[in-house]
Amino acid sequence: MGTVVDMQAMELRCKAFHPDCMMLSVPGDGDCLATSLIMVLGLKVDIAMLRQEVAQSLETDPLFARMRQGLIEMGEFEKVLEEIRTPGKWLGEEFLRAASVLFRVTIHIETPSGLRIVGDDNPQCIVLLAYNGVHYSPLL
After folding, report:
1. CB 118 within 8 A of CB 96
2. Who's near 129: CB < 8 A, 6+ residues apart?
């Protein structure tokens, strides 16, 4: 899983690298990633709607054919779809990658071990998140 640091230490790290941004608090309810993405993207949807939109796109959109095929070959496709659709269920790498493609953004994630980038090299925009090892927070 990597290093876990407390949120106060994570906030200090984020301020050092992104002085114009503030790390906002979101509930630790299993939906912290979805909540954080809704906030940084300014989406007018609730968590269930975001989860459903990402799952639907992953399941049917031609943009996701390669990712879908890889998950099918690993025997993980149905499991991933179920996890994405289940409120409060931890969202993982597939959700991050799918959201990046779906919303045409690159997601920069400040972690205890450094910056992690998910998405295209030529994005429409970049959004910032913080991840302390167990919890996501938006940086706005």
Report:
1. yes
2. 33, 36, 37, 40, 107, 108, 109, 110, 136, 137, 138, 139
Give the pLDDT confidence of 29-88 residue by residue, as tens digits.
999 999 999 999 999 999 999 999 999 999 999 999 999 999 999 999 999 999 999 999
Q: What pLDDT shows up at residue 1?
A: 47
What is the rounded distance in angstroms from the CA atom of residue 9 to the CA atom of residue 107? 21
Q: CA–CA separation, 115 vs 17, rounded Å?
A: 10
End-to-end CA distance of the chain: 25
Residues 4 and 129 sit within 8 Å (Cβ to Cβ): no
Predicted TM-score of the model (pTM)? 0.92
pLDDT (tens digit, 9 = 90+) per residue, 15-25?
999 999 999 99
CATH 3.90.70.80 correct for 7-139: yes
Beta bridge partners of 129: 109, 138
